[in-house]
Design a protein that fits this description.
This protein has about 325 residues and is mainly beta. The chain is built from five helices and 27 strands. The protein has a five-stranded mixed beta sheet. A five-stranded mixed beta sheet has the order 15-13-9-12-16.
């Protein structure tokens, strides 16, 4: 038997080699080596309290898997997680290695490459500050009215976020815009952060509360005006005397009211002063006549009438 086995050894080795090559070829056709690439978001792990969500650059990496088809296709793309560990790191920029959650069992017969293998992570502490909320509004009230000082509740809000962003905030404002020009406002309005150039800071900061109630009321205008007092008389003095002097105190009074009403008032009259059959000097407090829409600083004036006795006429 050994003699038979030793016969034609070259031919037998050739046949065995051919069989092995054929087996390898058929197996490679059924389960070839492939390469797959997946784009994965980079997650930050073990972030300390008091820090803002870090900035990761680049925020995604490419995971390249190379191996036989059966092994590569066992790895689900959704199951791949790329992470960086920031535990114990201080504020600032750090370059950290990217780690995958794939175990050795999963990676059997698979080669893994992460592109890029490291990413830059910027850690920033969170700070906060309290600022007063200002109310901005277009001051164009209807004729005869003015806006009262706006009421804002609450009066302050807290801005928090990354140190760099929070330090940019110089003012907190609410824009009180009525539905129609010249109307009152009573509404909850968003609080907006502004920088030193009065430009809105759109991101990177949190404002609490985010809204404030604004009440903006109108009130009638009350202008003032000084006018003369005009005395009004009724009756005639006794024929034996003549009126020598009339004195009014005060001679002028201050009135207030809407502009269109005050424009029509040039003087104020007294109530009629009765001088019928007057024979001697008299001092009286006389009320002023009321005018619709006009408020008076005084309701009466002091009127002094001084008379002079006439010479007696000779009897005819």
């Amino acid at each position: 038997m050994w003699r038979v086995l030793r016969e034609n050894i070259p031919e037998k080795l050739m046949a065995l080699s051919s069989a092995i090559l054929i087996w390898l070829y058929v197996n490679a056709e059924k389960n070839p080596t492939i390469t797959q690439r997946f784009t994965v978001d980079v997650e930050v792990q073990h972030l300390q309290n008091g820090y803002e969500p870090p900035v990761v650059s680049p925020s995604q990496v490419t995971v390249v898997l190379t191996g036989v088809r059966s092994s590569v296709e066992q790895i689900a793309p959704r199951g791949i997680r790329a992470t960086v560990d920031v535990s114990g790191l201080a504020e600032g920029k750090q370059r950290l290695p990217v780690q995958l959650n794939l175990t050795r069992d999963i990676l059997q017969d698979v080669q893994v490459e992460i592109v890029p293998p490291t990413v830059q992570v910027t850690l920033t502490k969170r700070i906060s500050k309290e600022l007063k909320i200002e109310c901005l509004f277009v001051n164009t009230p209807p004729d005869g009215y003015v806006y009262l000082s706006p009421i804002v509740f609450p009066e302050t809000a807290v801005v928090s976020g990354a140190r760099e962003k929070v330090n940019q905030v110089r003012r907190l404002i609410v824009n009180a815009v009525p539905q129609r020009v010249g109307e009152e406002v009573d509404d909850d309005l968003p609080v907006v952060a502004l920088d030193a150039d009065n430009r809105p800071i759109s991101g990177g900061v949190t404002i609490r509360p985010s809204h404030a109630r604004v009440v903006l009321k109108l009130t009638p205008v009350s202008l003032t005006k000084t006018v003369l007092v005009t005395p009004v008389w009724k009756g005639t003095p006794d024929p034996s005397v003549a009126i020598e002097e009339i004195a009014i105190e005060p001679r002028t009074v201050v009135i207030s009211g809407k502009p269109e009403v005050l424009a029509r008032v040039h003087s104020l009259e007294t109530e009629p002063i009765d001088i019928d059959n007057l024979t001697s000097d008299v001092i009286r407090s006389v009320p002023l006549r009321a005018v619709d829409g006009v408020q008076l600083t005084t309701s009466s004036v002091r009127v002094s009438v001084r008379v002079r006795r006439l010479p007696e006429r000779p009897a005819p």
